[in-house]
Each structure stands twice: as C-alpha cells, then as structure tokens.
Specification:
The chain is 51% helix and 7% strand. With 91 residues, the protein is mainly alpha-helical. The chain has one domain (3-89). The protein starts with a helix and ends with a helix.
Length: 91
C-alpha cells in the first residue's frame, strides 16, 4: 500500500458517538483533529491524553497492523505516518 493510502485507513472517531457506536473517520481526518486540538488547547494541550485516553497511539498502531503493516513499536508507526503526512503535504 502506498504511503498516501495509509491516511485513508479507517479509525474510530475520538470526538463523536458513544463507546458502543462510534463512527469512523480516516487517519488523515484523525490527524487533522489532533492538530485542531493542539491549536485550540495551546499550552494546556496534553500529548498524553489528547482525546481523553492515554492509549491513542496504540489505536493508530492497531489500524496500521490491521492493514498489514509491521508495527512492532511506536517508532515504526511514527516513520510510516510521518512519511505519509510529509508526502501528502509535498514536503
């Protein structure tokens, strides 16, 4: 799967729905929500709990693993996501 397609993978929307019925968004939208959260909260932003839980990075890793990527740790996921976002932004 090309790196840009990684951003199209579905993930549960951390800001909507209930635990039993959360709609999905794609990883691109997920990172847009994260950026919005950083901007809105400024100095009060919690990188440990940006969406209320401390396991948000594992959620992203699970999505990548389910799509067939080998993600043994956060660093593997960081490389994949960073490269996909840079490619999309033309950086």
């Amino acid at each position: 799967m090309p790196l840009l397609n990684i951003l199209d993978l579905p993930i549960l929307n951390p800001d909507r729905g209930t635990w039993e019925n959360k709609p999905t968004i794609n990883l691109r939208q997920y990172f847009h929500l994260l950026t919005i959260r950083v901007w809105e909260e400024g100095e009060e932003f919690s990188s440990k709990r940006p969406f209320g839980n401390s396991d948000w990075q594992s959620d992203v890793c699970e999505v990548l693993e389910a799509a067939g990527y080998s993600v043994d740790n956060y660093w593997d996921a960081t490389v994949l996501i960073t490269e996909a976002l840079k490619n999309e932004a033309g950086l």
